[in-house]
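How a chain folds remains the central question behind the approach discussed here. For one protein, we set the task of working out the structure tokens from the amino acid sequence alone. The sequence in question and its structure tokens are set out directly beneath this paragraph.

_____
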Amino acid sequence: MKNQKITYDNFSELLKVIGKYDVNEIVGWALRFCFRNPYESITIVDEKSCVQFMDKATEEFFDLEQGGAKGVDIRELIADSNLPRIIASGKPMIGGIWELRGIRRICSVYPLKRDGKIVGAVGRILFNSLEEIERINGEIQRLKKEIHYLKQKERKEYSALYNFDNILAVSKLMRETVQTAQTIAGLNTDVLITGESGTGKELFAHSIHNFLHADKPFIKINCPAIPFELAESQLFGYEKGAFTGARSSGQAGIFEAAENGTVFLDEISSLPLSIQAKLLRVLQEREVTRLGSTRTRKINFKSIAATNVDLRKLVGEGKFRDDLYYRVARATIIIPPLRERREDIPLYLRNFLERINDSFNTSIKGFSPEALRCLVEYNWPGNVRQLINVLEQIAIRAWQEDRITFQHLPVELHTPVRGPATDRFVPAGSLSMKDQVENTERKLIASALQQTNGNRRKAAMLLNMPRSTFYQKLKSYDMGK
């Protein structure tokens, strides 16, 4: 076949040389396509790097007539051609980046060998290849960023945010509670955290988890928010076809997702009895059975439960299983209410006021002695959560001031009365209810007028009081002048 022009008629002879095939028309046209491929170029050179074949598109690229490249040294057309280097080394170059007339392309060059001797080389260049690969690479990078975002989101959702350093305490009672929690955090045992609403049960749960397992999943289950009909599937998972609307692949439950980490059962008392029985088995055996399956799966996790009600009382009422209570309460932490550790209140006030200043763009520096005394002596039935809420309200009232005074406090926190020289705090029992209300209203109205420079309309708006009511109060308290 030397010096013979390859035509469609002798493609079958070429195939016989390559190997034994059942040559048909499609194969013949496919081979012809390989030499006329509009998507990539092909150049064949001999051992001296002289062109023996170059496809039409490439010849046109070099402004050559068809067949005009025949016998030309490839280096005359492409000074930095890889073909001579491959002939010299005998090693192929696959998927290299090559720039031709300012355009970057992907190319591959292969040595041609006959009886172990290099007799030439074949070079192929993919047209529009780099642009397509860059497009694909851009898509890959976008997907990587999306996956990273979803992983970060999942990590945030399944991560504990706080540690024991975030628990502020100067009172002996609270410091002892923190020490107990730190001891329990180092043990391989389930934990029950009890305390009134707003005392910081979740803060303790986060801290216990992060004490040893900060890099493991922390999954919170808000028990009252789980729909009754979906509780079992969400907690324990389900198999394909377990119920109408189930995913075709099934789904792992919360306990499986918490493998080697922590499950935080917030307000565990609200779980229905039917779920309590299955939860008991999970806690005892450390294994789950998905809905619609008979196969059990072994899992490893730490359980932290929290409640603001007396579970023992619920056990006596038949609303909570006694065996589950003894399981979740293997180690118990009781968080004292704020009224039993008043020494902590000034610390909380200062700390949260700094945060509120940053959030509200205020510059309140502290509290007057009377305001601080009132805040410390209040019983705070909502504990720390209520304290933060009230402090935010106070900061709004005092947003132009440099400190919080008695007048800025909500009515329910104090009973003000005007003394001969200054305002003073009077215990609620020393005045009638009517006098307490009137004195409070007088003080609030006077403060509002002072803050608005005597503008009655703005003062009424500041107190969130209808103007007609405001004017009636001014008249009845003889404050209209």
